[in-house]
Amino acid sequence: MEWHLALTLLLGTVCIIMFLGLPVALAFFAANVLGTYLFIGGDIGLLFMPMEFHNAIKFTLSPIALFLLMGEILLQTGVAFKAIGAIDRLISRVPGRLSVVSIVGGTVFSSLSGSTIANTAILGSVLLPDMLKRGYQPAIAMGPIMAVGGIAMLIPPSALAVLLASLAEQSVAQLLIAGIVPGILMAVLFFAYVVGRCMINPELAPAYVPDESHLDAPLTVSLNFGGASRTIMTYNGRLLRLANRVLPFFFYILPLFVIFIVVVGSIFFKIAAPTEAAALGCVASLGACYFFRIFKKTTSISGIDGADFNWRAIAKALMETAKINTMILFIIAGSLVFSQALSNSGATDGLLQAVTSMSLTPLTVVIVMMLVLLFLGAFMDQVSMLLLTLPFFLLGGSSLQVVFNIDVIWLMVLMLITMEISLLTPPFGLLLYVMKGVAPFKVSLGQVVTSAMPFILIELLVLILLIAVPEVATWLPKQIQ
């Protein structure tokens, strides 16, 4: 069979089954059965499929489950919501205040959860109703929440970054570190855009005087033992409002930064491998939640509450992690066997030979790759588009990355940013529908899409910057080589 017919048959099978609404894993499994039977020895090939599925699940994928668990622990115990409240209290009078809170809060939570969906759902459910109630236009209310939700794909711990590096058999640690600078740069540009646009057009985010009466209440610190409460300090001085504003930051944000430092610091200074760092992050998350529980039981500071750390919340976090991780492992197993079927059919080599015969430069090839990902991202989810393109872009000695000698870490960061952009591109951008789900019923899908457009342009600007200046992505990971 000609390579282009084999390529059409296998990719077409996957796309048609996904178009029918069946799970991604089933689409890959169906294509695998067809491809294995046709191109890998008929019945004998089918007998070897279970072994291939078993070999596809590797120890290097374990950080995905651990990073997901880390975020779920913080989510189910309510620590994430407390952190957003602390940021809300800290940020006072700036144009588009609540939009700025969503950007700062989303960036902080991105460094802890690794989940774009969780990031967007939490910020949307907590902040969006208050924004719309205060007269914020949907364009400036929903856009920042969706855009900053996608940063979780870049800033470690990113589950998709771990998946990409593991499947490509590249350094997970270097890719996690490489996403830090582009992620922070993107958050800064979001911040500048929101503040600048609200200064030019204040009607987008009407100014209001936040209720800060609680900041004038005397600050009291009490110890609680044996059911009795004893006040050990009361403060009512000139810096009372500042103290009431800053204290929640120390109690809810700094402990979360410790988790980030434990994960990223242990990788950066080569104290731990990514899997070990993810495990340390889970332990640090449990420690932070337990600290909040002890604080709630033994100490009370006026205006500051502890988190609800209990075994029921931990059990729910474990259950949600198991659900998501099982789905991911099925998809991974199916996709790796799918890449073998593509290779054995001759489709991979045929397509790569067709591309190399066009005498393209490496930069042109990279741009073509990104355009392909942007196109696919408008119609399918990030994991599917990643697994469809990986055999051609990164896997094997005849991939485009090897043939054109492209820096692999730089290329993977570009792929992550492109997939982040595709989260917001219509008609099937995943975060568009997450936002529509948490937004009030009166908000239309058209308004959601319109609000995302300026932030898509900002993300495209960052992508262009990284293509023009690769060192933005490659400088930091080179420091840990």
Structure report:
This protein has a three-stranded antiparallel sheet. The two termini are 45 Å apart. It has a domain at 55-213 and 311-481. The model has no long low-confidence stretch (mean pLDDT 80). The protein has 481 residues and is mainly α. Helix content is 72%, strand content 4%. The protein has helices spanning 3-19, 24-39, 42-56, 62-76, 79-90, 97-113, 116-133, 138-149, 159-167, 172-178, 180-200, 240-268, 274-298, 311-345, 347-356, 362-377, 382-393, 400-403, 408-422, 430-438, 445-468, 471-478, and strands spanning 219-225, 228-235, 299-301. Helix 6 (97-113) runs antiparallel to helix 7 (116-133) and helix 6 packs antiparallel against helix 11 (180-200).
Radius of gyration: 24 Å
What is the overall silhouette? globular
Query: How many strands?
Result: 3
Question: What is the spatial order of strands in the main beta sheet?
Answer: 2-1-3
Global mean pLDDT = 80
State the separation between the terminal residues, measured CA to CA: 45 Å
Q: Strand count, sense and closure of the main sheet? A: 3 strands, antiparallel
Alpha plus pi helix count: 22
Strand percentage: under 5%
Q: What fraction, in percent, of the residue positions are helical?
A: over 70%
Helix and strand composition category = mainly alpha
Low-confidence stretches: none
> What is the string of SSEs from the N terminus onward?
HHHHHHHHHHHEEHHEHHHHHHHHH
